[in-house]
Amino acid sequence: MFKKLSLLAIIVAFSSIAQQNKPQKIDSIRLNEVVLSAKVILGSKFEAKNRTGSAYYISPEEIKKFNYTDVNRTLRSVPGVNVYEEDGFGLRPNISLRGTSPERSSKITLMEDGVLIAPAPYSAPSAYYFPTIARMQAVEILKGSSQVQYGPYTTGGAINMISTEVPDDFGIFINSSYGSFQSGRLHAQLGDSKKNFGYSVEYLNYNSNGFKELDNGANTGFDKNDLVAKFKIKTNPDAKLGQELEIKFQYSDEISNETYLGLTQTDFEATPFRRYAGSQVDEMNTEHIQFMGTHTLKFSDYFHITTVGYINDFSRNWYKVDFVTVNGEREGIGTIFNSPDTFSPYLDLITGTVNSGDDDALNVRANNRKYLSTGIQTKLDYHWTGENTFHDIEVGLRYHFDEEDRFQWIDDYAITDGILQLSNAGIPGTNANRISDARAFSSYALYKLKYKNLTLTPGIRYENITLGRSNYGTNDVERTGINLSERENKVDVFIPGIGFNYNFTNISLFGGIHKGFSPPSNQVGEEPEESINYELGTRFSYAGFTGEVVGFYNDYSNLLGSDLAATGGTGSLDQFNAGEVKVQGLEVLLNYNLLPKSENFIMPITLGYTLTDTEFQNSFGSENDIWGEVNAGDELPYLSKHQLNATISFEHEKYEINFSGRYNGAFRTQAGSGSIPANEIVGDNLVLDLGGKYRLNPHIAVTINTMNLLDETYAVARVPAGLRPGMPFSILGGLEIRY
Question: Would you call 270 helix, strand, or coil by DSSP?
Fold first, then answer.
């Protein structure tokens, strides 16, 4: 394992070598001097390349290349992003930034249009709701130093998804496609802007019958709808005090026949796309509503105040088999699939190979929950110039409230000849009956000083959080409070950071140090997750090549693990102390146009590589065996050590062909060191995708997209219960219309 200092030395040496070549001056590494919209972190690739910390901007053009609806595939081109799949369609992603725990993307700051978008970002951050990437105009990923603007999760970074903006002129967009597994997509937008107002209405439907095969032949797919409407009014361009108000409404719903049940090793090797009979009634139902109002005061081009009020309401019920009962003894599906030979009578009921003698053989939990996330945030941005200097100060305030309301029950089923029969309908509230909430006040100040070629960005964030839980108990479904138990945990923390960027002729050197923070749960006295994070990197442009090399080192003093059902736990969301952990790595990004002299064609190629090296510094036994027995020197689970991504495109005015390849290294599902045991490994895989577009005229184009071009069969996870497959070969053809 390489050391922190040697890693940083490699980057410094790389910078020195590139500087010695002395090519022509490149303006693209000069910092821009504009006030950015409150909706965005970066706003453009230009800003990403000039950030004092590591950042990446996925542009509208990049999103359109492959027409993805799967956020996992969209993000895989970004160094430092580590994901493991679950359902094959990206409905509920597991995203890590720089070695944070990836489970349900719960340790990163997720935003849409600059607003926290996880169902309950403080009290229950697991992302069972995730915005549909296909309706996004751009995606911004911020890693490393100077993260004080975005919280509460500051260790790995932030992801901000920018929804389709109100167009400057009248426009109509329709994209429709159909293909494998009877998958279909319809995406349409209508919008216009006048002198003082503008509007946009957007609709997206994405559906599929699914690629997994239930033993009874039933549908394993999903149907998801998205509707977004925006209305904007603004003052005349020549007004002394410019004002703008935008109202946004978003609605989405989803019905997906998804399950927590995977496959045993033997069954996966024989029939990787099988779904056991025991999962035939499993179904996720969700509904999400957002109201968002954004008001901007433009005192000048150099002074803006933007205020955003938001309400996110999310409800979901994941109805799925969670337990199996044999002779009165109940076991969770995670336990069963961890030792299928030991629990073979339980497994026989799940597979439907035997008939149940009892009416309560399969216990299906209605994971019924409602979430509310609401708040108001204000951002003041002012900059000015001096002789050889540029100054910018940004101050932000936010008051936020969120809650998760669990009101769950368990239905019992018998299974006969592979068919489930409801034998006992549970009473709502008798499995879980509690409300978790959080009240948080946060503020930050970030100062940017540019003197000639040097930029410094010191900043500090403040979080004051009160986390509570009211547990009414399973015997008080009316919530009279007769058995009410309450608990509360408070956190008060300052989060400092500083970044720098220095521009040479054709190269920039950047880096920084900042405090990493992640809120604890509502357990009394539980401490937050904390770390000190370092990065050092270089961006360069030489002889047609552009790129970035970054080393990072995250020094955790207190890593928190979470009891999530999605990773084989009980689903209590309780957290536990994992102590000191070191996470370090290397990110490499390289871009080049293979046809630099051609007037009619371009052939851009992009290579991205991520090395993530992790190590526990102490020994302990994790609760509920989520990570297993941990020894000092063990690696964190669920994180690939090596990832490599390559894209190459052949583009002409009339047509384009886009090819993408991703190598994802093997990862372990339990903490450990050395070679990974066969029952704890998710093997490496190489997946190739291909996208193409032919423009019949300026308004109409034909599209084709293929995923997993070589039809590789591969596993993506062993959680929540058993092995799960990635999507096999699929192809979709479509038509795109723009006016």
Answer: helix
In 3D space, the residue among 491, 294, 463, 459 whose CA is nearest the CA of residue 376 turns out to be 294
As a dihedral over the C-alpha atoms of residue 50, residue 73, residue 115, residue 539, rounded to 10 degrees, the angle is -10
Torsion over CA: 87, 91, 96, 102 (sign): negative
Interatomic CA distance for residues 528 and 727, integer angstroms:
37
Residue 20 to residue 8: CA distance in whole angstroms = 19
Helix (H, G, I), strand (E, B) or coil at 273: coil
Interior CA angle at 603 toward 600 and 604, to 5°? 130
Residues 6+ apart with CB under 8 A from 142: 41, 42, 51, 53, 54, 55, 150, 157, 158, 159, 160
Q: CA-based angle 449:454:456, to the nearest 5?
A: 40
The burial of 285, by beta-carbon neighbours within 10 Å (0-12 exposed, 13-18 middle, 19 or more buried), is given as: middle
Strands 222-234 and 274-275, by their bridges, are: unpaired
Residues 292 and 142: their CA atoms lie apart, in Å, by 23
**Dist. CA 558–CA 539, nearest whole Å:** 32
Pairwise CA distance, residues 362 & 339, whole Å? 18
Q: How far apart are CA 381 and CA 359, in angstroms?
A: 64
Highest mean predicted confidence (pLDDT) among 43-57, 292-306, 351-365: 292-306
Residue 152 CA to residue 396 CA, distance in Å, equals: 13
How many angstroms separate the CA atoms of 605 and 591, rounded?
6
Would you state the structure tokens that stand for residue 61, as one six-digit string?
């053009």
Q: Please list the residues that pair with 110 across neighbouring strands.
A: 159
697 backbone dihedrals φ, ψ, rounded to 5°: -160, 180
Q: In three state form, how does the secondary structure of 22-82 look?
A: CCCCCHHHCCCCCCCCCCCCCCCHHHHHCCCCCEEEECHHHHHHHCCCCHHHHHCCCCCEE
First to last CA, the chain: 55
Q: Which amino acid is at 126?
A: S
Query: Side chain identity at 650, as an amino acid letter?
Result: F
What's the rounded Cα separation, in Å, for the pair 337 and 262? 8
- pLDDT, tens digit, for every residue of 425-473? 999 999 999 999 999 999 999 999 999 999 999 999 999 999 999 999 9
CB 282 within 8 A of CB 322: no
Tokens 């030979």 appear where?
341
Q: What is the pLDDT of residues 476-485, one digit of tens each?
A: 999 999 999 9
Which of 732, 650, 720 lies closest to 263 in space, CA to CA? 720
The rounded distance, in Å, linking the Cα atoms of 55 and 121 is 22
Contacts of 663 (CB under 8 A, 6+ apart): 642, 643, 644, 645, 684, 685, 686
Tell me the pTM. 0.92
Mean pLDDT for the chain overall: 90
Q: Dig out the tokens for 490 from the structure.
A: 């408070």
Q: Tell me how far apart the alpha carbons of residues 445 and 148 are, in angstroms, rounded to a whole number.
A: 8
Q: CA 65, CA 689: separation in Å to the nearest integer?
A: 11
For 339, residues 6+ apart whose C-beta sits below 8 A from its C-beta are none
Token readout for 237 is 């361009």
List beta partners, residue 206: 185, 224
Q: Could you read off the pLDDT of 534-559 as tens digits, one per residue?
A: 999 999 999 999 999 999 999 999 88
Phi, psi of 475 (to 5 degrees): -105, 5
How far is it, in rounded angstroms, from Cα 138 to Cα 105? 19
The secondary structure of residue 347, as a DSSP letter, is: H
Q: How many CB atoms lie within 10 A of CB 622?
A: 19
Q: How confident is the model at residue 11 (pLDDT cuts 50, 70, 90)?
A: very low
Q: Per residue in 351-401, pLDDT tens?
A: 999 999 878 899 999 999 999 999 999 999 999 998 889 999 999 999 999
Tokens of 451: 């003197």
